[in-house]
Amino acid sequence: MNKLLLVGDNTITPGNYLISYDTASNLTINGEVTLNNPNNPNHDLTINLENNAQLNYHAILYLTTNNNLTITTKNNNVLNLNLVIINTNKNKFTITINMLGSTSRAKISIRALNTDSASNLDIICNGNISKNTFDNEILEDLKGLILHNDSLKISPNITVSTNEVMANHLVTIGSFNPEDLFYLATKGLSIKTAKNLLLHSFVTSILPQELHEYLKMEVIKFE
Amino acid sequence: MLEINNLTVEAENKTILNNFNLKINDGEIHVLMGPNGTGKSTICKAILKHPDYKVTGKMTYHDQDLLAMDTTSIARLGFFYLNQNPVEIEGITNAEMLRNALSEKNDERVDIFKFNKKLNEVCDIINLPKSFVHRDINYNMSGGEKKKNELLQLFILEPKFIILDEIDSGLDVDALKTVGKALQEYYERYKPSILIVTHHQAILKYFNDYTVHVLKDGKIKATGDKSLATKIENLGFEANTINGTTEYE
Fold first, then answer.
1. How confident is the model at residue B246 (pLDDT cuts 50, 70, 90)?
2. CA A77 to CA A71: how far, in whole Å?
3. Where are the beta strands (DSSP E) in chain A?
4. CA B202 centroid distance within chain
């Protein structure tokens, strides 16, 4: 995995990159690209996919301010977006997927939680499918985990301006499943260990193995 | 010995079991049979302190008060619960869960070489591919695979008291044979107490000696030896004459 420091406008050639950036950045993607972002420093990111480009974007976002991610697709694009959002303070995270061309697929997976009971996260996930396009697919799979008496809001907004599109969204927000906790306790696990295992599985389920080492679980405080 | 006296179990303001009594000595096998909805699964979960149930009465294991304990403590006493449809947990592997369970129970790090060796031995016993050890707990497994996966955990955790809630449900002939033989092997090796909830005799043929109880309306209405299971299978639960005398309504 090559390291890539993003500054301003960047054109990314095919490959597998570990990215970092200190300012708002604009990316243009050509060919098949995987971007792993282990620690987003709260700067906006805009990504444009050229025709036939494929992007796998995996990110762990330790959010401490409002943040925007905007991605635009053209024709024959494949976009897999996997974001783990670990939020502190009151913040809004806005994702916008603009599908301007045809025959593209976009899958957006998000796993989100707050680090403490005083934090408050508002996620808005916009999918805009333009008119005069056809055979596009968009799937939003958005999950939030409540660990404290914190507040988590997820809004899936898909705006469709064409007849020929497949658009789905799945949103769940909840605490640990009591049946999962009971099951693990019947095997002799303490509730604390059971919750830690479930928390770890929640955030790692959408991340590639190479990003797991960058997870800082210690920032999440819960009993 | 597990001793349950005058146990009442409620859920959502409804009484499911009322003044329920049961005694199971070490190494004994007891079978609970009865129509659907009579509280068989409830008693299994109540023993493990499922959070949905409010339980009153007396329940002890080797004179330790189970009602004063939480689920984790009861499991660490040696209880193991296997139900007909175990939960699927994506993202936690069997190995990860078992390592944590053993480490916490024994308060020491698990010797990874011994642990892996035992896992391999158990996979052979229950005819389970070794890859299952590193699969997520019951995730995307068939009904039969889930039961075998639970048996893998059973052999690693080595419980002294096993609760099997309709483990034979949904198993095909081959899977039932594998599960039955694995349980038979475990019983012969470790002589645990076993409480079996079932509607059928198929799983019972793997055990030589057991006591059968008929549960109806939240209470045990009849108790007998293995021949009672045969009579129930032939006459059904609604029959009011068993062995020539009225034993349950």
1. very low
2. 11
3. 2-6, 9-12, 15-21, 25-29, 32-37, 45-49, 54-63, 67-73, 78-87, 90-99, 105-114, 120-129, 134-145, 151-160, 164-174
4. 16
pLDDT in tens, B148-207: 999 999 999 999 999 999 998 888 898 899 999 999 999 999 999 999 999 888 899 999
Q: What is the pTM of this model?
A: 0.88
Do β-strands A54-63 and A78-87 pair in parallel, antiparallel, or remain unpaired?
A: parallel
Instruction: Please name the member of B72, B76, B157 whose beta carbon is closest to the beta carbon of A191.
Output: B72
Buried b (16+ CB within 10 A) or exposed e, A136-170: bbbbbbbbbbbbbebebebebebebeeeebebebe
Region for A120 from its dihedrals, namely left if φ exceeds 0, alpha if ψ lies in -120 to 50, beta otherwise: beta
List Cβ neighbours of A146 (8 Å cut-off, separation of 6 or more).
A113, A114, A152, A173, A174, A175
With an 8 Å Cβ cutoff, are A187 and B97 in contact? Answer: yes
Per residue in A31-47, pLDDT (tens digit) is 999 999 998 777 899 99
Judging contacts by C-beta atoms under 8 Å, the chain A residues touching residue B75 are: 185-188
- DSSP H helices, chain A, are 178-186, 191-204, 209-212
Selecting from B48, B79, B101 the residue whose C-beta is nearest the C-beta of A189 gives: B101
Report the distance separating Cα A114 and Cα A147, nearest Å. 7
Contacts of B76 in chain A (CB under 8 A): 188
What is the per-residue pLDDT across B87-138, written as a single tens digit (0 to 9) for each? Answer: 999 989 999 999 999 999 888 888 999 999 999 999 988 888 989 999 999 9
Structure tokens of A212? Answer: 């797991």
Distance from CA of A12 to the nearest CA of B (A): 32
Tokens at B21, concatenated: 């009594």
CB contact under 8 A, B75 and A185: yes
